[in-house]
């Protein structure tokens, strides 16, 4: 692991692997939350399973937390190192002509997603940890949907979430294909397919999250 993070190429590779793991998490997280739109019971069952299954709690969740922290810390490290290596901006770097807004501003969209995660943990994750491990309540399989639904009664929270999901989409629009490039997956035939898939992914996943938030707001 130390070897993987001690060179720029190694760092980009490790960054890409953590990104890919998070891309898979987002599909699972969006699908689980989408059940709340269709069925209260389905969402309650899925949440209860995730919340009390030992493999999810003691294996997947810690790995997810490490991947999230690693991805953000390494993102900032790479940004700082890139800026140090290039103290004077290239004369020919005239913005949009050479690269997209998304690729030049990954650090900004990433920081917005990080700020969103702080709010999101305050909303869901910390209360859940408090409920289970600090208050030590007995499991209640029926509470999850109502808790989720109640969170979205506040228009400001919904708006903040929606803005974060749009920025998440911009982050993914560059990040998806960039993670494949960083692990060396380049091929004249497959790269356009990866890019097209990435574009759809970065539109549909945030749209799914936006739909869930707005659904719970308008059905209060
Ligand atoms: C409308 C959109 C969303 C809803 C309704 C939602 C809902 C939830 C809920 C209910 C939990 C608590 C799970 C538990 O521990 O019992 C949670 C946790 C979490 N969410 Fe979200 N989420 C949304 C969007 C997102 C997005 C866009 C991201 C990432 C950018 C994200 C990342 C996480 C993470 C990392 C956790 C903690 C790990 C976990 O407990 O699974 N969520 N979310």
Automatic annotation (TrEMBL):
Transmembrane segments: 55-80, 101-122, 155-176, 197-218
Superkingdom in the source lineage: Bacteria
Cellular compartments per GO CC: membrane
UniProt keyword list: Membrane, Transmembrane, Transmembrane helix
Protein name: Succinate dehydrogenase / fumarate reductase cytochrome b subunit
Organism: Chryseobacterium potabilaquae
């Amino acid at each position: 692991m130390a070897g993987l993070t001690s060179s720029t190429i190694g760092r980009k590779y490790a960054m890409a692997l953590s990104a890919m793991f998070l891309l898979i998490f987002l599909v699972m997280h969006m699908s689980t939350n989408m059940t709340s739109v269709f069925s209260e019971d389905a969402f309650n069952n899925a949440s209860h399973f995730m919340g009390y299954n030992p493999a999810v709690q003691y294996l997947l969740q810690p790995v997810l937390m490490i991947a999230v922290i690693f991805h953000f810390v390494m993102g900032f490290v790479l940004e700082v190192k890139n800026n140090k290596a290039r103290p004077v901006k290239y004369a020919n770097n005239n913005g949009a002509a050479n690269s997209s807004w998304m690729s030049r501003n990954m650090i900004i969209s990433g920081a917005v997603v990080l700020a969103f995660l702080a709010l999101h943990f305050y909303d869901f994750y910390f209360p859940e940890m408090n409920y289970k491990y600090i208050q030590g309540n007995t499991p209640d399989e029926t509470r999850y949907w109502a808790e989720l639904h109640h969170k979205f009664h506040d228009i400001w929270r919904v708006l903040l979430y929606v803005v974060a999901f749009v920025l998440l989409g911009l982050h993914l629009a560059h990040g998806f294909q960039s993670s494949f490039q960083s692990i060396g997956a380049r091929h004249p035939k497959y790269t356009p397919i990866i890019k097209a898939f990435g574009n759809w992914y970065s539109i549909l996943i945030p749209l799914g999250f936006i739909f869930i938030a707005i659904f719970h707001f308008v059905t209060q």
